[in-house]
Amino acid sequence: MAATRSLHRRESTEEAGFTIIEVVIAAAILAIAIVLTVSPLVSSMRSLDRSKDVTIAESIAQGRIEQVRALEFDDIGHPGSAPNGVLARSETRSVEGASFLIETTVEFVGAASGLDIVPQGGDGVEGVFDIGVNYKHIHVVVSAVGSGADPVTMDTFIAPPTVGGLDDIAVIEVELDRHEPFDPSIDPEPVVRIAGPWIYDSPEGAPNQYFADVFEGTYDISLVTSHGWMIHPDSIDSGATSVTATLGTASQRTIRIYQPVALDVVVLDDDTGSPITDAVLTATDLAYGPPTSNSPGDYSFTGLVPDRYRVDAVADGYRSESFEVDVPANGGGSSATATVRLSPQAFVGVDYDFFVDHDGDNDYHINGATVQISHSTYGVFVGTTDETGHTVIELPANTSGFSVSVTVPWGQDPATASLSTGGSPGSGTFSLTAPPVTDVFSLRNGAAGPDGFFEYKVGSGSWVRLLANDTGRATFVVPEDDGTIVEMRTYCSAADYPASPAKTRSEPLDGRDFSWNARASC
Fold first, then answer.
1. What is the CATH number of domain 349-432?
2. I need a labelling partner for 129 at 20 to 30 A (CA). Which of 35, 148, 215, 267 fits?
3. Each residue of 456-491: b (16+ CB within 10 Å) or e?
């Protein structure tokens, strides 16, 4: 028995020793695996840090370029240097705990170097020494201190406000600011045209397009060989599409352009989920307006400015609904989609025909007036008058307690009323009046709606679009301000906008109402 117990103890000891060896080998293998894994992980983290540093550096460099562009021409340079100015040659900025070195270099080009900044030469004469044209070249380098990331470099040229000693030369520069979203690979820059005393087309599409040695005068800027681009309402409203060429001067304009986008809407019955095929949709650009209404069943909007829109949906037998949507969607692209669900009306409906005019004058019935009807139980009903001044809205029959509000964006006071419906169709007429101490502008014989429209601008304000009715008439109201110039123009269609108005007119405010017989031929 003793011998047996001794053998058993030896076997147990040998087994225990073998287990310890296995543990040691496993630990060694695990250590090797950790070492092999940590190295790529550290390398990846370093790459991410470098990528982050590059992104921040690009943002800093772009900010420095924009800062330089905002300076007066004489301030672009280094203190005590040529060119003299206010820019430091180097500075350090801390962003998210990291330090970035910003180095800015400014030098003259064009006069001392004879460099042709543009194909035809900065002085307007190709192949001739650019005497007197002192463009400034700005070179920005941003480096992440202590990072392995490559420095970011950016360059820009700044044109002088005057063309040196070349007093018989006028230069116009048009910079194109492309409004997102767009695809640089398939959306090349358009060719710019300036039309005035003479017509000039730029040699090719480019972000900056130059017209050298042009005749004096005022020119309208438009796009040719547009590649689908259109001029943004921002630039049109601000008057940036007009520029004056003066001898001895380099005039500059920045034009914002965009690629038109589309919106497709799905309209469903909220109870059944079935498609509704006869709804009327109206889309309103929340920044620019005016509303655009489609025919019943047409749920696609094309040719839109990229922006945020309010869409109103109306269908017989359903409560109207409104929603807002970004066009295109946040992911970019050239279109957006949206779905609206309409709830069936829990009432028997009756049509009411609303007619809106200016101050009781049927000849000046209003296209584009908003008629809003509110009820504490049934909610809100909205309609927009067409070129005949009418809009038809279905309301609950035999119901009282409706509040009606009629508004326009052209200066007239709103009109309000209470309404009770009966069991058969009804109607209502609203006449909008001018507030006190204002002047009424009555425009007639212009381009007729729905395609034709007017625009007006008061002083240095923005252009306001004014929808024409079916007889080519419209009204707007402005506060009295003697001497202020009011500009007006009429267009036959959107295809003529903004370069080809059918007629134009300018008048100073003098405390009296004004009537313009446009006599437009469309």
1. 2.60.40.10
2. 215
3. bbbeeeebbbbbbbebbbbbbbbeebeebebbbbbb
